[in-house]
Amino acid sequence: MTHSQHTPLAIIFALGFTMMLGPFAIDTYLPAFPDIAADLGVDINVVSLTISIYMFAIALGQLVGGALSDRFGRRRVLVTGLLLFAGASFFLSQAQTIESLLLGRVIQAIGGGFTAVSIPALVRDRVNGLQAAKLFSMIGLVAIVAPAIAPSIGTLLLRFGDWGIVFAFLGIYALCLLPLLSVTVFKGPRRPPAGPGGISMLKRYLEVLREHRALPHIGWQAAGFGGLIIFVTWSAFIYQLHYEQSRDAFALLFACNIVTMFCCNLLNRMLLNRLTSLQILRGATVAQAVAAIWLVGVALLDGSVFTFLPGMMLYAGALGAISPNNQASFLEYFPNSSGSAAALMGTATFALGGIASGLSTLLPQTLPAVTLCMLACSLAALGFMALRGTRNHATQP
């Protein structure tokens, strides 16, 4: 049931700033990779594993946190997640071995998972259908700023200290979210929709899995996100090594992708007044596949960075329309267990993204190999789109 058709801007910004925590945790320390590798005495590919392990652990955090938020409320799980994330970030700022770095990233990611899974559940508690898609899109507009500015923030922080300062910044940011959420989202506490009282975590997830019509949306999200994570994992190689760009140019080129995500998100909000979430979702998925084909062509023909960039911008930008519409369409099936449903989608998305990221580090260090993997993810998304169509003969959400 819809609680309100109009969500206050303060809540939208608070949820958007909270969503920014995830991209900050992944992208802010990217410029520090060479420094981390040198200080810890490991190869840069080993440092790249901290992205993969973060993906796996955030998946676990979402799986546990989603069911807990359905049972104990969003506030407890969200606050616990932020405190875990902050504590782990301060630990990471003092890490002196690759083992302690990996351990800290696991704990940080579990806290991040608790935090991330609470946001779509909070949205579904308030609105549904078209309004949910619009609210996801508005929150996304705020959150999109994070990956655009994260590498630049990391580069700036590195001028004032060693790489540990980047993790200290993440810890402070997480703590600052606590009072912000307290005076906005949780002002006048709102509990999740009433569900079966003592239902176990396992049963909650089994209930979600029994809704077969909704399941293609999970794979759909994971495939779209997986291709982008492969790019993030290889972005330093692509721009700094293959295209021989400077650290500052890398931050700028990385930010270009987010400009398109922002534009696609704005366009999405306008299109929602004329089209359904599912129609926009299908169009954006096709656009991402076209961009992937372009990138493969550029890589095989050894095109310049200026021919690679437009395709990459479209590939990343399409996710600005895919993600909010896919989440809204998926959660429509679960009015009473949105926390568990969001957790299952988040877990699959990050786990498969982590697998894609980890396996991609085994690829030959060539641009064609990376872009072919991104194309494979886009083709998988098209496959899940087709599967969703065959499973939904009844009324579409």
From TrEMBL:
<dbReference type="InterPro" id="IPR004812">
    <property type="entry name" value="Efflux_drug-R_Bcr/CmlA"/>
</dbReference>
<feature type="transmembrane region" description="Helical">
    <location>
        <begin position="369"/>
        <end position="387"/>
    </location>
</feature>
<keyword id="KW-0812">Transmembrane</keyword>
<feature type="transmembrane region" description="Helical">
    <location>
        <begin position="342"/>
        <end position="363"/>
    </location>
</feature>
<keyword id="KW-0813">Transport</keyword>
<dbReference type="InterPro" id="IPR011701">
    <property type="entry name" value="MFS"/>
</dbReference>
<dbReference type="GO" id="GO:0042910">
    <property type="term" value="F:xenobiotic transmembrane transporter activity"/>
</dbReference>
<dbReference type="InterPro" id="IPR036259">
    <property type="entry name" value="MFS_trans_sf"/>
</dbReference>
<feature type="transmembrane region" description="Helical">
    <location>
        <begin position="249"/>
        <end position="268"/>
    </location>
</feature>
<feature type="transmembrane region" description="Helical">
    <location>
        <begin position="163"/>
        <end position="186"/>
    </location>
</feature>
<comment type="similarity">
    <text>Belongs to the major facilitator superfamily. Bcr/CmlA family.</text>
</comment>
<protein>
    <recommendedName>
        <fullName>Bcr/CflA family efflux transporter</fullName>
    </recommendedName>
</protein>
<feature type="transmembrane region" description="Helical">
    <location>
        <begin position="102"/>
        <end position="123"/>
    </location>
</feature>
<dbReference type="InterPro" id="IPR005829">
    <property type="entry name" value="Sugar_transporter_CS"/>
</dbReference>
<dbReference type="InterPro" id="IPR020846">
    <property type="entry name" value="MFS_dom"/>
</dbReference>
<keyword id="KW-1003">Cell membrane</keyword>
<feature type="transmembrane region" description="Helical">
    <location>
        <begin position="77"/>
        <end position="96"/>
    </location>
</feature>
<dbReference type="GO" id="GO:0005886">
    <property type="term" value="C:plasma membrane"/>
</dbReference>
<feature type="transmembrane region" description="Helical">
    <location>
        <begin position="135"/>
        <end position="157"/>
    </location>
</feature>
<keyword id="KW-1133">Transmembrane helix</keyword>
<dbReference type="GO" id="GO:1990961">
    <property type="term" value="P:xenobiotic detoxification by transmembrane export across the plasma membrane"/>
</dbReference>
<dbReference type="InterPro" id="IPR050189">
    <property type="entry name" value="MFS_Efflux_Transporters"/>
</dbReference>
<dbReference type="Pfam" id="PF07690">
    <property type="entry name" value="MFS_1"/>
</dbReference>
<feature type="transmembrane region" description="Helical">
    <location>
        <begin position="7"/>
        <end position="26"/>
    </location>
</feature>
<feature type="transmembrane region" description="Helical">
    <location>
        <begin position="46"/>
        <end position="65"/>
    </location>
</feature>
<feature type="domain" description="Major facilitator superfamily (MFS) profile">
    <location>
        <begin position="11"/>
        <end position="392"/>
    </location>
</feature>
<feature type="transmembrane region" description="Helical">
    <location>
        <begin position="218"/>
        <end position="237"/>
    </location>
</feature>
<keyword id="KW-0472">Membrane</keyword>
<keyword id="KW-0997">Cell inner membrane</keyword>
